[in-house]
Write a structure and sequence with these properties.
13 helices; mainly alpha; globular
Amino acid sequence: MLHFLRKMNRGGAVLKTKTRKKLTFYILLTLAALLWLVPLVMLFLSAIRSTTEFYTNLNLFTIPKVIKWSNFTDAWTKGNLGIYMKNGLLVSLVEVPLEVLFSSMCAFALTRLGVKHSNGIFIFILVGMMLPRQMALIPLNIMYSTLGMTNTYFCLWFTYIGFGIPMGVLVFRGFFRAIPKEMDEAANIDGCGKLRLYWSIIMPVAKPAVATMFILDFLSTWNEFLLQSVLITKDTMKTVSNGLMSFIGEFSTDYGLLSAGVLVSIIPVLIIYLVFQRQFVEGMAGAVKA
């Protein structure tokens, strides 16, 4: 009986320790979430503040005396934010699916087609992740200017796909390697070709990897600024990250208008993340296993 009571006491102590650790973990997560929300709150309060109040009241955490909701409509119409977001969606929704397609096909070849020296080819592709875009800025500008391709979305699509393939191959290769090869053998017995194997069997299984790449590549393309600022100079063709710079004047800046524009520009990225969030963690886990 005494031995049983000691076991019960030990079990209760272990349970209390686990509960305490779990509670501490969730408290830390809550504090981290609140910390990440601070810039968003500051941005929202700045977006509903007039320019005069912005300069007279430097405390960005106070609710403005006069809430200026017109900053959002002015940013959309007078600031041409609607045009910039339409251009950004055009660039992103064409580039991202192509990026996913080419990266997954490359990873499929490296993992399922028995390509010689596949590991060496994979390492060579990963070298592209080490090359900064700033290093290629001048050569790209000279090349596209010579070909007369500046101020076209093709130069952005081509460049973004090239810089994004290494990351895409890394994610898809890790996920494809976790898929049993027995599925390939069963498909071959049923008369399934390589293209159908890729499209009808491997890709449906790899939905988490597709969702992961869609989120990462959409975020990268939507927020990219440097290449766009050099290759796209026409105001009617600028995307959000480049177009928001027009809100900044030479001698003064309407920070309320700028904050409203930034806040609205977050919405597409947030929607994409909410749609694919369930598969995002699983897809990243597959990449890490590689």
